[in-house]
Amino acid sequence: MPSLGVVCFGSTERTLGLAATTFGDLDLAAEHLRRAVAANLRLGNRPMTAVAKADLATVLRRRGDHRAAEELLDSAVSDATVMGM
Q1: pTM of this structure
Q2: N or C: which end of the chain has fewer CB within 10 A?
Q3: What is the torsional sign of CA 16, 53, 31, 13?
Q4: Is there a contact between 62 and 84 (Cβ–Cβ < 8 Å)?
Q5: Cβ neighbours of residue 45 under 8 Å, at least 6 residues apart?
Q6: Average pLDDT of each block of 10 consecutive residues along the chain (85 residues)?
Q7: Residue 50 near residue 33, CB atoms below 8 Å
Q8: What domains, with CATH codes, occur in the chain?
Q9: How deeply is 21 buried, as exposed, middle or buried, from its count of CB atoms within 10 A (0-12, 13-18, 19+)?
Q10: DSSP letter at 24?
Q11: How far, CA to CA in Å, does 30 sit from each of 1, 34, 64?
């Protein structure tokens, strides 16, 4: 059945960031996830921007950058709450 529904799962940079995280390369993961946040902002994909921010916060926390992780996670949760996620 044809559909007019369109889905955007956000920037592929997020997927690359998750892959780098899985392989333990947290520096590369952070680079990809930062690009994912920026790309999703440019796309206007607010839900995936919030998700990418949360992913980046997780990586930053694992790298020991707790302050930046906390600020980013707060921003992601705030954005998600506003959207009813």
Answers
A1: 0.90
A2: N
A3: positive
A4: no
A5: 8, 10
A6: 73 98 98 98 96 98 97 97 94
A7: no
A8: 12-82 (1.25.40.10)
A9: buried
A10: T
A11: 40, 6, 12
Q: Which residue has the tokens 């796309």?
A: 43
CA separation for the pair 81, 43 (Å, rounded): 20
- Which pLDDT value is given to residue 7? 79
Separation CA 40–CA 44 (nearest Å): 6
**Do the beta carbons of residue 51 and residue 18 sit within 8 Å?**
no
CB neighbours (10 Å) of residue 5? 5
| DSSP H helical ranges for 1-85 | 12-22, 26-43, 46-63, 66-82
